[in-house]
Amino acid sequence: MKVIQVSHGDGEYPVYVGQGLLGMASVIDRHVEGRVLVVSDPNVARLYLDRLRPALERVRHKRRLILPDGEQHKTVESWQRIIDELITLKAQRDATVLALGGGVIGDMAGFAAACYMRGIRVVQMPTTLLAQVDASVGGKTGVNHASGKNLIGAFHQPAAVIADLDTLSSLDERDYRAGLAEVVKYGAIRDAALFAWLEANTEGLNARLPGTLMEAVFQSVRNKAEVVAADTRESGQRALLNFGHTFGHALETATAYSVWRHGEAVAIGMVLATRLSEVLGRVETGTCDRLRDLLKRLGLPTALPEDQDPDRLLNLMRLDKKNRADQIRLILLDTIGKASIVPCPADDIREVLHS
Ligand SMILES: NC(=O)c1ccc[n+]([C@@H]2O[C@H](COP(=O)([O-])OP(=O)(O)OC[C@H]3O[C@@H](n4cnc5c(N)ncnc54)[C@H](O)[C@@H]3O)[C@@H](O)[C@H]2O)c1
């Protein structure tokens, strides 16, 4: 087991990464207080809820809430069900919410914990690679609104994150690979050594070897922790984590969130952003090929599908939150391991989308 401390404006918390953690009462015990509500989804509950039994044995007042699975249920209605359950549990200020699941459960349970009695503790127990390397760390919580993803939310840091690598063995292939895209992202924007390590370890990653997974999750969380410590509320460098995301979000929106996993869209977006970095002369020629090669070896898509209308994507990119004064601002690479936020001319973006 490895532990990374995450510092933020109001304190710090540990992220545990290792095998068998869900069954480790000694670890979980340290972070659980008061009455306990476990929130999960049906897939995860069926596979992993029982593993929490030793840790929750001593807790007298506890309940579980299994919410329907999927991004379409990341709503105010699901959030309300968590609040209702906390009320039924007679949870007080010292209660604990345990979020056992992927990013959808983590974001919703975290947001309910942020709101109930103006904030109770949440322990994140991420079970997808994406949630372990990204969503569970950093305190962003929220739900979707019909008009937009994550429109309603709050910053609410967890009391601890417990990332049990054993849970990754049951992940669907596409969900697993989508998580790998975010690991590649950390290497590309701020950690050249991680990028080179990923290039050298694609076989172990594809085979989900425990030692390789440990290193990938640990290095990703270390990178995220450093970014969160420097910029807890995303006023500066935390925006660099959006590398590939502006292109990716446009693609996700254009396909009504029904074709691509988030990480797959981000993989395509990272290739487009790197191609643009080359077109603008910001990065050495060949960098895009290097990134594309790594993503391909990890089984990720790297090109826009033929049927996408580039002008529609460009219009969708104009809606991104990073934009200022009508200019599209993107995260571009300076080199592998370093990125900047750059205002980009629409014509150059169009050229890359058409190429
Ligand atoms: N808060 C943040 O900083 C942050 C960052 C990135 C993404 N997110 C959010 O994360 C969400 C996506 O998260 P996700 O990709 O984990 O999706 P998810 O939570 O929907 O999980 C994907 C699927 O995997 C299943 N699953 C989860 N763990 C499993 C396991 N161990 N074995 C088998 N199946 C399992 C789930 O039931 C679900 O069907 C999005 O809503 C996104 O907005 C939040």
Briefly summarize what is shown:
This protein has two domains: 169 residues, 3-Layer(aba) Sandwich (Rossmann fold), CATH 3.40.50.1970; 182 residues, Dehydroquinate synthase-like, alpha domain.
Please characterize this protein's 3D structure.
The chain is an alpha/beta fold. The protein folds into two domains: 2-170, Rossmann fold; 173-354, Dehydroquinate synthase-like, alpha domain (Up-down Bundle). 45% of the residues lie in helices and 20% in strands. It has 15 helices and eleven strands. A seven-stranded mixed beta sheet has the order 1-2-9-6-5-3-4, sandwiched between helices. A two-stranded antiparallel ribbon has the order 7-8. Helix 4 (76-88) packs across helix 5 (103-115) and helix 6 (129-135) runs parallel beside helix 7. The longest helix has 21 residues, at 210-230. The mean pLDDT is 95.
User: Total number of β-strand segments?
Assistant: 11
Adjacency order of strands in the biggest sheet: 1-2-9-6-5-3-4
Radius of gyration over all CA atoms, rounded: 20 Å
CATH class of the largest domain, named Mainly Alpha
CATH architecture label of the largest domain: Up-down Bundle
The description of the largest β-sheet is: 7 strands, mixed
**Helix residue percentage:** 40-55%
- How far is the first residue's CA from the last residue's CA? 45 Å
Query: Which structural category do the helix and sheet elements fall into?
Result: alpha/beta
Number of domains: 2
Helices and strands, in N-to-C order? EEHEHHEHEHEHEEEHHHHHHHHEEH
- The backbone outline, from C-alpha atoms, is globular
CATH topology term of the largest domain: Dehydroquinate synthase-like, alpha domain
Low-confidence spans: none
Q: pLDDT average, as an integer? A: 95
Q: What is the CATH superfamily of the largest domain?
A: Dehydroquinate synthase-like - alpha domain
Bound molecules: nicotinamide-adenine-dinucleotide
Provide the β-strand percentage band: 15-25%
**Count of individual helical segments:** 15
